Sequence to fold (249 residues):
Amino acid sequence: MIFILSKILLFLIKPIVWICVLLIFAVASKQPKQRKRYLLYTLIIFFFFSNGFIAGKIVNTYVSGDYPKSQKYDVGIVLGGFSGLNKRNNEIAFNGAGDRLFQAIALYKKGYIKQILISGGNANIIDSQVKEADLAFKYLKLIGIPDTAILIEKRSRNTVENARYSMALITKNNPNAKILVITSAWHIPRAKLIFDKQAKRNIEYYPTNFMGNTEFELDNLIIPNATALTIWELLFKEWIGLAVDSFRA
Fold:
């Protein structure tokens, strides 16, 4: 039930949903003054949350760009949410967070991590048969990563379960393993809170797929940007998750 409610909440925190709801109210309103008020609210919310400059400044303030100081790890845990199934060819399809896996591969190739642990089941309410870890395992084998260098955990549906099941697997195979968690830069504050609580040991974190520009031009200030809406959606999700996970993790 909590899992389903969380999915509903994720839908409701989207700024684009607020904009659509306000537009519906504006169209349905029979009073001209009320209609104008709803339209004004719609414009304000739209221009604020679609402003690339504002979104970029906020996300750059929130995320950490620091990379770990150590260079050798026994296991690199790649948190799921970076891919899905392409039903046209039944192969893995990477999304915007695919950099999580690509950076893990690079770290392995450079000799910084000995094993790649893919932590990801299926967070789809309707179709939960396809497991992300299985898709990633198949991809890693395809590009020449040996079986001995791959660990998979395919039960988790969220970050709390990522930490719980990954740490259980590592404790079983290598209790003294030096661990690096590899995930999106905007996800690290929440991942760190959860993993540090559950692992109760020193874990380091590697940020990937940063969002938000570090340099801005005039069009970032005046032209609406769809990416800015996505950034706010991710930030709201992380902030709410951070508040909830501080109690439940």
The two ends are 17 Å apart (CA to CA). Residues 60 and 82 are 21 Å apart (CA to CA). DSSP finds ten helices and seven strands in the chain.
